[in-house]
């Protein structure tokens, strides 16, 4: 892709086309999942980042094997729902008790000298509670509906009537919740100075920051798969079903 095309492409378009670009956007803290509708140019200007450095990193990806790039976009919606639950929901469920214990411990031990860790523990508690409720809604309501929509469209069956009206209603709610979770993690990132532990931080302190950073990275991939791939696919399925009936 030539540089002018890269400059005017949105972050979500680039990550959807080639997931390897996500690592570059993570490196520069460019949000490709919740606020991925911005072009690289806009996002870099907002964050005062030299766009040429980002474009240089992206151009290096062109020489890499893009085989993984289309994996998610090529997935059928039901397979993608299962992948999200088995990979990302399972990871969040496994890490919440671990990170809750670690953030609380670091706050108790280091809170006097580093008051930011008390705020970090509170933010993590908030995001943990919100994500647990959020994933339950996806697993119990939205994802089963998307799977049913997909099955009905494939079999040419009549319109499915959902209690929530159009699928765009729960999608809007999920997107707003993604934004909240992303904002909470952004606060944690800022408070921790980009997950840099202080010189006097103990092993638990360092491990906690690393785990928080991994948690945020996983959340970005998770939200990208939903906001940029699964949800638009669900809207297209619903429109296809309506136009057939
Ligand atoms: Fe999810
Ligand atoms: Fe979600």
Cα gyration radius (Å): 20 Å
Q: What class would the helix/strand composition place it in?
A: mainly alpha
* Beta-strand residue percentage: under 5%
Q: Can you count the beta strands?
A: 0
Poorly predicted runs of 5 or more residues: none
* Percentage of residues in helical conformation: over 70%
The total tally of domains equals 2
Average pLDDT over all residues: 91
Small-molecule binders? fe (ii) ion
Per DSSP, the total helix count is 9
Main sheet overview: none
| Straight-line distance between termini | 40 Å
Pattern of helices and strands:
HHHHHHHHH
The general outline is globular
SSE order and pairing:
Layout: H1 3-8, H2 11-17, H3 21-27, H4 40-47, H5 51-61, H6 77-110, H7 116-154, H8 168-191, H9 203-244
Helix pairs in contact: 2-9, 6-7, 6-9, 7-8, 7-9, 8-9
The protein binds fe (ii) ion (2 copies).
One fe (ii) ion (FE2) is lined by residues 134, 138, 174, 178, 226.
